[in-house]
Amino acid sequence: MAGSTFQTNPYDLYKLLEDCHRGALQLPDFQRSWVWDEDRIKSLIASISRAFPIGALMTLDTGGEVNFKPRPVEGAPTEAKQNPP
Questions:
Q1: In angstroms, how far is the first alpha carbon of the chain from the final one?
Q2: Domain-located, residue 82
């Protein structure tokens, strides 16, 4: 069997980071903070740079019956909180 043995739904990392920076992509207030150590962060960056699959990113559209209080992703500018997720 030629080719890749896995399937992805590609989404540009640049676009995800840009959405975090603008506040379009935020976390629910109950989401825990970042807990990875430096070695795990380096491994993640290495995997991304080699185009390896890195797991799942689950998102939730806002505006439904249940609306969680949002908070910007850590490191996003303060203005990100002013934008609706």
A1: 42
A2: yes
Residue whose C-alpha is closest to residue 72's, from 43, 33, 46, 40: 33
Of 62, 55, 46, 59, which Cα lies nearest the Cα of 16?
59
Partnered with residue 27 across adjacent β-strands are 71
What pTM did the predictor assign?
0.70
Q: Report the pLDDT value the prediction gives residue 77, as an integer from 0 to 100.
A: 93
Domains contained in the chain, number: 1
CA separation for the pair 20, 71 (Å, rounded): 10
Task: Determine if residue 3 is left, alpha or beta; phi over 0 gives left, psi from -120 to 50 gives alpha, anything else beta.
Answer: left
pLDDT digits (tens, 9 = 90+) for 14-57: 898 899 999 999 988 888 887 889 999 899 888 888 888 777 77
**What residues make up the domain containing 19?**
11-28+69-85
The pLDDT, as a whole number, for residue 7 is: 62
